[in-house]
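Worked problem 6 (solution included).
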Amino acid sequence: MSKLNRSTLSSLDSAVKVPGYDLAAVRGGIAHIGVGAFHRAHQAVYVDRLLNQGLAMDWGIVGIGLLPPDAAMRDALRDQDYLYTVLVKHADGSLEPHVVGSIIDYLFAPDDPEAVLSALTDPAIRIVSLTITEGGYHVDQSTGELDLDDALRADLVPGAVPATAFGFIVEALARRRAADIAPFTVMSCDNIQGNGTLARHVITDFARLRDPELGAWIEANVAFPNSMVDRITPVTTDTDRALLTVEFDLEDRWPVVCEPYLQWVLEDEFCTGRPPFEVAGVQVVDEVAPYELMKLRLLNAGHQALGYLGYLAGYRYAHEAAQDPLFAEFLLGYMEQEATPSLDPVPGVDLAAYRAQLIERFANPYVADTLARLCTDSSDRIPKFLVPVIQYQLAHGGPVHRSALVVASWARYAEGVDEQGQPIDVVDQRRAAVQARAEHNLDEPLLFLADESLFGALREDARFTALYTAALRELHTHGARATLEQWPPADLD
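Solution. The predicted structure is:
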């Protein structure tokens, strides 16, 4: 068995694609904060494609981890000379492994924060990209403004060693400004509508609290392109590691598994240059918004439509629910009748084909994406993915009965017990508050909608609440499957 590292590349199974470029010749041009599975299956793959074409040799990726759990990624990558395997799982069961070499280093900030700042101040680093999750942007959901929590306050203390992504970015930009070094582009790759616009807003606001002139300089000189990213990338399991070993005689401490589909739509706004991403298949455009709304309201909200109902019904994987005609029909109905009317035209995209493709992607049994993952951090996801669809439809007199059922299924899921009486591990940054409201689903069903930072004024809309309370009642009385079979009731249709 071959342990993955530079010395073993030439001896790997011929079915494993390996870098066709000189790994030692790649130089850093991108620093990426938040090196998780998605980044390694997505942005790093695009850079690897360019490197395999002899392009972007000065755009290698320096990974940065800020949180204690990131030490595991540091150790896994360091042990393998920063190489890792992307294992693409096709719907027919075939496997496509390839080794990615675009990450050339990994810095763990708690080990040496000054090393991170030195890297971010290096003129060679011209892009700092982010996958720090929705919660990493420190946004007050009710106001859309910067939420100055304890971690950010600590980073504002004069002379403090940064601990947050914002702290490192702003300190590095301050040093670059003082040294007359051109700023880097901040490229958010998180699954947030207007991710670049949001990053600009909260980072410049944070910088102004430290130094108003620095904040103004960042706003005037730093580029924050918006982007839309897409690839289903489930959590890597020991079974996946074993699969690499059995099928390809390859030992990889932390491979990435993903679906074949890959998409990145990126706004062409960079202040210090960029790689020729379009050569690698990135859609470089002037306006990302139509694409990101399509993805957020069809794919991401579609995951929510499938996730809670599927889990409550006893399924544990996305493909199990997506292969069930009852659940697939409900999901397609949501996408066609409720989500799609809320979208602007999407250049070059056949939305009917896109919707059908989503069902096929969700139904891929070999990706084995868990419904628990889809239901994670719902209080970050539902307000961004689904609530805007509901608000649009209510304003235009359109149907909302499927969306109401999805919200009700979240409320039922948040009770923490499934239909078989088994506990549900509700993973959510607002878990305590969400579950406290869900405890009253039977005696005060509208309480779950009381948080306006999550639901806006939906609690005050009689048409929506009639559907929502009926859905919640049906879920408690008959369960998810029986509810779907007769939803909506004739008197509410």
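Discussion: The mean pLDDT is 96.
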